[in-house]
Amino acid sequence: MEKKILRAGIIGSGFAAKFHYDALQRVFNTKVEIAGAYSPTPQKLADFTTARGIPAFENVEQLIAASDVIHVCTPPVTHEPLVIAALQQDKFVIVEKPFTGYFGDGTVEFNGDTFPKKQGLEHAMESVANMLNAEKNSKGKIMYAENWIYAPAVQKQKELLQKTGAQIIWMHGEQSHSGSHSPTYGQWQFSGGGSMIGKGCHPLSAALYFKQIEGKARNGKPIRPATISARTHAITRMPGFKDEGYLRTTYKDTEDFALLHIVFEDGTIADLFASELVLGGVHNWIEVNTTNHRTICNMNPNNAMQTYTPAQKHFEDVYVVEKMETKQGWSFISPDEGWFAGYQHEMDAFYRSAAYGAAIESNSSLAADVTATIYAGYVSAEKKGEEVAITIL
């Protein structure tokens, strides 16, 4: 069968746009033509498009019209209007995480530390509902770009759950590192929160996904989250914090540590950590404890390849792994970081769905549950860990 041709349009010109472009080079089930890119920052757009030999668009409407699949690689504050604009033109839209959220009241006085978190929950769920309604009225679909779902380790655990009929009784996991790439990260008005949403969305997505898979395999319907107890802290903003220059410390009004305790509707639990306080590269893992097996999924780091050099100068031109402070000594060097993280598998799956109608593993329902859980978590953290019900749309 001849492969279908799909045109891709990329909104954004930063870190996420770059790895989306790279992942598109590994889409094999369809032929992808890059229609072009748009960014509100002219110089960054020119740099991004010139380096890749793709067209630069003057406005986002023209790019959407020229594309079959739109990649939203922009700060979370922009996601809702861009996703809805693409869906209104019946386009498939791949939207980066976090999906959406609450980004303040638009005033210069807004402060993420002090606003009522229930207000944030209400606004975030309204944003989710707007996006889901736009999807219902469109021929296109929302594809939630949570690469953890497509990581090979996570997909193998999916198979184990389906074939063993196991009950998941407890999960725990983490995403942490020394600070985000994004210049706007750490300002609630752009990011919609700190570590809980920016990092916690990853292991949370995997935990919610595993319970969906388990429920479908055992009872024919997904098992959803019911309540959350959470705590957040701003360690690097403490007056007594000793800054030695290794951790990012430019957070304005967001947390740099979060702990989430989730109770599912069947009474089982998950404990997840997210922080900007970890040196030595990205720490991405989730452990799944079930009634008949135990699995540890290590996305970063893993020991597929380890290398040692006595002096960093030998590796100056070598990419080792994301967020590593030094290349001297032993490193968990990744032979193919995108493969282990699920980026290429994610993109291939999304384009297979857009071209041939295959089911989407990381869909708008998962994105909605993740958003609902996190913003209920912020309400809980405001109340020093009080248990809060999770709104399921």
TrEMBL record:
Pfam families: GFO_IDH_MocA. InterPro entries: Gfo/Idh/MocA-like_OxRdtase_N, Gfo/Idh/MocA_Oxidoreductase, NAD(P)-bd_dom_sf. One of its GO terms (molecular function) is nucleotide binding. Residues 6-100 form the Gfo/Idh/MocA-like oxidoreductase N-terminal domain. SUPFAM superfamilies: Glyceraldehyde-3-phosphate dehydrogenase-like, C-terminal domain, NAD(P)-binding Rossmann-fold domains. Gene3D superfamilies: Dihydrodipicolinate Reductase, domain 2, NAD(P)-binding Rossmann-like Domain. This is Gfo/Idh/MocA family oxidoreductase. It comes from Ilyomonas limi.
